[in-house]
Amino acid sequence: MGKYDEEGVVGEAVSPSSQSLSTSIFSLCIQIILEFEQPVVDIDRSKKTLADALLPKNPRFSSILEEDEKGVLRWKKTTVNIDDHLFIPEFPPGHESYDSLVNEYISNLCITPFNHCRPLWEFHLLNHKTTKAQATLIIKVHHAIGDGISLMSALFSCVTRADNPTIPPTFPAFRKFNFIEAKGFKGNYDFSIFKYFGKLWYVVLVLWYTMVDVMDGLLRMMGWKEDSKLPIRGPPGVENLPVTISSTEFPLVDIKQIKTCIGATVNDVLTGIIFCGIQRYLQICLSTGEEQSILDAYEKRSKPNDTVIKQMQNLRVTSLAMINMRVLARLKNSEEMVNETTEVMWGNQFGFLHLSIPLKNVKNSLDFVKRAKCIIDRRKMSLGIFAIPKILGSLGRLKGAQALAKCAYNTIASTTMAISNMIGPMEKIAIDQNIIKRFSFFVSGAPH
């Protein structure tokens, strides 16, 4: 991180990737939604807890974007009034549940721009009961401040374990993918020739897949390749429209059972579930006639006819899976990530995988998980995940943030959907003794 002088005049130069996320082309924000078991009673104390945990540990939460005399965009230190960043809306009384009003508030919040005269973050406390929680806290942070790993490290520095506040929450370790071990190339062979040819074949595959993925990424950056036009894709300018929020839950024990059954990861299983849902949704949309609504077709659970099955096989549907690019064995705290000497740097350090969604009709839904695992394993073999961010970074340094933003916009807009997830704590957590029942996040401002 850069250093600030006493007057806050000298600050760290904003990286090209962070600049590209706040341009006239598009502007991305991260919405973190925390749902509490009980209403937040002592708001002033909770406000102080959050401010004391965030502001002293990371200068970006007390900085604004400002150009210096040379036209370089920098983080400039400023005085923070926490009351300027905390919003507590009041809804009309008399409602048994405020689900629709809370969802409408979040939807409108997504398209409300930040005041760039203040640091780019806000807290919105909705102390109203919904069917899922007694109170809801929305934390809105501009993506220029940092990516999901960065912001989660900051968030979890504010929380404690609900059962024992003196002990910090624990997180599962990150698992590294090893293709050689996964495919059986590593082991005790009677003849070393098998090892040699196995590794040689692996190198050939890596080079080939890297070339294919880099070319695919470049075509999408230039706007020369995109997915098929389907109902699931939004119209041009969809990033400026209000969002509709929906959620579902899957028992973790079932996820782990599927994971163990086919030797996959939790991400493989979740991706397979998403792929299955997307295929079924498209089957319903393409099978629906003018006289029939999508809801009616869904309720009938009718099987797609041969024409629809053949039509879907010719479609191109791609998901953009966001990947953390740090050398990370565990989730670091905010202070560690801000430290210049650490390898786990704060900021926007993410890549992405283009995952082709399989649309071939299958009888067993478990096959989607197996296909998702094969697709993800294949993408992990490629060095394109490292090459594409390097290309984008070089473009940003040579052509500036606007050119980088245009390529990033084209990359996102050329796909049908994005998939992003974060690890969570292994114990129930709380903020200032307010127990969090569940939390989720999503990105607004993307052309999806």
Automatic annotation (TrEMBL):
Please name the GO terms that the record assigns under molecular function. diacylglycerol O-acyltransferase activity; long-chain-alcohol O-fatty-acyltransferase activity
- Superkingdom as given in the UniProt entry: Eukaryota
Q: Which part of the chain is the O-acyltransferase WSD1-like N-terminal domain?
A: 73-269
Membrane topology, as annotated = Single-pass membrane protein
Looking up SUPFAM superfamilies in the UniProt record yields: CoA-dependent acyltransferases
GO terms for CC? endoplasmic reticulum membrane; plasma membrane
**Which GO annotations describe the biological process of this protein?**
triglyceride biosynthetic process
Q: Which reaction does it catalyse?
A: an acyl-CoA + a 1,2-diacyl-sn-glycerol = a triacyl-sn-glycerol + CoA; a long chain fatty alcohol + a fatty acyl-CoA = a long-chain alcohol wax ester + CoA
Q: Which organism is it from?
A: Taxus chinensis (Chinese yew)
Q: In which pathway does it act?
A: Lipid metabolism; Glycerolipid metabolism; triacylglycerol biosynthesis
Membrane-spanning ranges: 200-219
Per UniProt, residues of the O-acyltransferase WSD1 C-terminal domain are 346-447
The entry's localization annotation reads:
Cell membrane; Endoplasmic reticulum
- For this entry, the protein name equals Diacylglycerol O-acyltransferase
